[in-house]
Amino acid sequence: MTAKLNSQAGESASESNQPKPNLRQRILVVEDDADIRQLNAKVLACSGYHVNAAEDGAAAWDALQRNRYDLVVTDNDMPKVTGVELIKKLQDTQMNLPVIMATGTLPDEEFARYPCLQPAVTLLKPYTFDELLNAVKAVLRATADALEEIAPPPNWQGQPLTDRFRL
After folding, report:
1. By the 8 A CB rule, do 30 and 75 touch?
2. Residues 56-65: pLDDT tens digits?
């Protein structure tokens, strides 16, 4: 993993195949355990994502107010604001953002009471880095597919306004 973390300056030919950050896909990792937070952020960054990390739900909420993200990967059992509370805040403010909950215990009671708070994917700890990456890819792909369904046709921008709206 060390080779993937080296700066791109002076990279060898074998390192040039490493994924480059995709700055369009920004992920916020929210985890109160510093080791897990750092590992998750490092794995995602090494896989080409732009990653920020927050130590709890309150810090995550602050980050969400300042930055645009494509995905949140959050623990549930955290001080100040839990993962479920963070999902509720996202919904209350109509911030349409997919969430992966990576947690040691499922908040089954909250999900039973409020089914709309279900995250896109739930990963139970301990999970593997492959499981995390597969979940991230699947959620981002599903989100992109949904956006393409509502996007205007590709030739929309190329047509003069008078051609698009003939009276």
Report:
1. yes
2. 999 999 999 9
